[in-house]
Amino acid sequence: MDATRLEPELRYQFARSGGAGGQNVNKVATKAELRFDLRNSSLLTDDERTVLEEKLASKLTTEGELVLTHQTERTQLANKEKVTKKFYKLIEKAFEKPKPRKATKPSKASIEERIAGKKRKSDVKTGRKKVDF
User: What is the domain extent for residue 37?
Assistant: First the structure.
């Protein structure tokens, strides 16, 4: 899926960001907040919407809105670009197919190491027993 086609529905808000920056922090609204209304998007198909709702469930508000922020840069434009890139990466990652797992057998060395570890543990526990004289 091409996430750039969702750009018309992205809304940006700006606020004063915290952290270092001196007096500039108190005067300039450089923190960028990106909002995307996932549930009411007219650009998404139903299948795309369900996939995104499943994968991004922890990042959605109760109204089904995705909210991302970025505030590390000193300019509003740089923060806006960074939060937009973050959004595109998030959407692309949601549609990535997981790599199938190939079943493998344990190597001979790992089997021997596991058995040796069990033997050591057994010897330690045996050494804790009460000795009868």
Answer: 3-94
Q: pTM for the whole thing? A: 0.70
Contact 70, 79 (CB under 8 A): yes
The span from the CA of 132 to the CA of 125, in Å, is 16
Q: How many domains does the chain have?
A: 1
Other Cβ atoms less than 10 A from the Cβ of 69: the count is 16
CA-based nearest residue to 67, from 49, 44, 42, 90:
90
**Predicted local confidence at residue 82, as pLDDT:** 95
DSSP for 57-68, written as a single string: GGGB-TTSEEEE
CATH number at residue 52: 3.30.160.20
Residue 21 has a pLDDT of 65
Beta strands in 4-74 (DSSP E): 11-15, 31-37, 65-70
